[in-house]
Pectate lyase
Amino acid sequence: MYSKALLAASLAGLATSATTNTNLQTTFPSASGTTNLAAVKTIAAGASFDGGMKQWDRNPSTCNEQAEGGDADAVFLLQSGATLSNAIIGANNGEGVHCLGTCTLNNVWWTDVCEDAATFKQSSGTSYVNGGGARNADDKVLQHNGGGTVAVKNFFAQNVGKVYRSCGNCDTQYARSSTFTNIRVDGADVVAGVNGNEGDKTTISNSCLLNSKICWLYKGNDDGDEPTKTASAPDGVVCATSAVKTSGC
């Protein structure tokens, strides 16, 4: 039989699970409170952390405009297989979320992106972004530096540069894969920037993309040079689309 303590913990877990809304939402949520961290918070390999819909931030701020930061500048550092749910990331950080291996982000929101919202560093496997959203990013929201796949579903982006970028000049390059399903973007320079010469593949389906370019294709490199843009629209191979609307949605 369950003890009272175990039963209470089980019911609490069910309640938490029930409040994780990974459907497409187009209104940024209000924070239930604020937590300012002096250092990055690490979520252990395979562990799950529920942010309780609080706004999580760094104090002092680690945001340095568009200067490239590292793991120490993030709010959350996820080890391989970790899950972060129900968190609002504030403006006073440079890197938001860093995933060292595959990770899952459920109902995570970024109110004002500094350098990047989330960076994916896994060498292989699939990371998931389910629900949530980001706004006010001068450049990138989802930065894919490692390999494998980033699968984005039911995500909302507003007033951003690139919703997703496959790293154009990382020291180690990969053939990266990305998928976007039922996303809504309102005001982006481009939804996905990918490297055709590196074997990247991206698919955008069943989505509403307003005031936004769909894909930019690049010639990536591993020597740190600024990558060259080779195309400014989907080509059906490197970047393919299905049931994408650009108005009336």
Confidence is low (pLDDT under 50) at residues 1-18. Residues 140 and 162 are 5 Å apart (CA to CA). Residues 4-18 form the longest helix (15 residues).
